[in-house]
Amino acid sequence: MTESTSDPVRGSAYGTAPVPLSVLDLVALGEGNTAHQALQASQRLARLVESRGFLRYWVAEHHSMPGISSSSPAVILAHLAAHTRRLRLGSGGVMLPNHAPLVIAEQFGTLEALAPGRIDLGLGRAPGTDGATAAALRRTGGGPGAGDDFPAEVTELIGFLRGDFPDRHPYRAVHAVPGPVQGHTGHPQVWLLGSSGFSARLAGQLGLPFAFAHHFAAQNTLPALELYRSSFRPSAVLAEPYVVLGVFAFAGDDAREARRQALTGALATVRLRSGRPGLIPTPEEAEAHVFTERETAALGGWLDNALYGTADEVAAGLDELQKRTGADELMLAMNSHSLDFRVRSYELISDAYGLPNGSPATG
């Protein structure tokens, strides 16, 4: 449970994969399944990808979305830490406007104590939900502009994690525990997440690694990455820019099944963006659905930017995306209906890249 990778940011690519592969888990919940089953599938998937040489496994924070069971990333990560040994575990991300920085520092300091050297703390400035739910979550009366405090809150959070507030800072005597005050020399690796230029620029200025949500903001990918790289200033944690790119990837034993499962996620996204969030529909329901003009507009380029097909087709798409963007790592996401399909998809992608096939961790 405490064995770690050698580098908190950079990993070694295995097999024929041009860069390390990782997973972004939405803990998607399909019609006919339960949250217990979805979370058990996440445990199964984390153990699988660890055995196949994936670098990291992140869980995304969402709220008031019936089809996504990841409202509490820290709780899920603690469970996954008990069932893995080497895999880096993290948030993709924790939505900082929803939480006090000290609380996040305590939660992720606890995770770091449970799994030393394996914890990533990815931070986002969006609420990860709709406006009404965001208002219910926020610790103050912050409205849509609450994310404007993001740079200051990131700095405050890092101060708690490192225990290095200056002498006259009002929180100089406040400590995140577990943390440095107890003699811990390590702390979670902080990342910034984004889908536009705001966090890209901030990540560069702070010298932090950057994860971009290509899977739902593909039109912004190249401008944001250029802004991050041009803004980058070397720091104590990172000497040069490092980009993780999130991408939807659905690999099936045949192309038809891959498209059927991708379509379930597409329809779920349409409903979410139309203010009708629900469970991930079945493939039969998704195939029978007639998308209206308005729904097609809400969907945007979801299917156009998702990769689906056979494992070789998906691998080719991943390789092309990596070459086009210069990404240092690819983080695969999937919000399909079938829990078994998700596991099988990652097996197929691993096989396509010739990744090692070790035994999952016990426990």
User: Largest sheet, if any?
Assistant: 8 strands, parallel, barrel
Q: How are the strands ordered across the major sheet? A: 1-2-3-4-5-6-7-9
Order of helices and strands: EHEHEHEHHEHEHEHHHHEHEH
Query: How many domains?
Result: 1
Structural class, by secondary structure, is alpha/beta
Average pLDDT taken over every residue: 90
The DSSP helix count reads 13
Family: To bacterial alkanal monooxygenase alpha and beta chains.
GO molecular function, one term: oxidoreductase activity
Protein name: LLM class flavin-dependent oxidoreductase
Organism: Streptomyces eurythermus
Task: Put the structure in a nutshell.
With 363 residues, the chain is of the alpha/beta class.
Structure characterization notes:
The chain is α/β, with parallel strands linked by helices. It has one domain (21-352): TIM Barrel (Alpha-Beta Barrel). 40% of the residues lie in helices and 14% in strands. It has helices at 35-51, 73-81, 101-114, 131-137, 150-162, 197-206, 221-231, 255-273, 283-288, 293-299, 302-305, 311-325, 339-352; strands at 21-25, 56-59, 88-95, 119-124, 189-194, 210-212, 243-252, 307-310, 329-333. α2 packs parallel to α3, α3 crosses α5 and α6 (197-206) packs parallel to α7. The model is unreliable at 141-146 (pLDDT under 50).
Question: How does the SSE layout of this entry go?
Answer:
Layout: E1 21-25, H1 35-51, E2 56-59, H2 73-81, E3 88-95, H3 101-114, E4 119-124, H4 131-137, H5 150-162, E5 189-194, H6 197-206, E6 210-212, H7 221-231, E7 243-252, H8 255-273, H9 283-288, H10 293-299, H11 302-305, E8 307-310, H12 311-325, E9 329-333, H13 339-352
Parallel strand pairs: 1-2, 1-9, 2-3, 3-4, 4-5, 5-6, 6-7, 7-8, 7-9
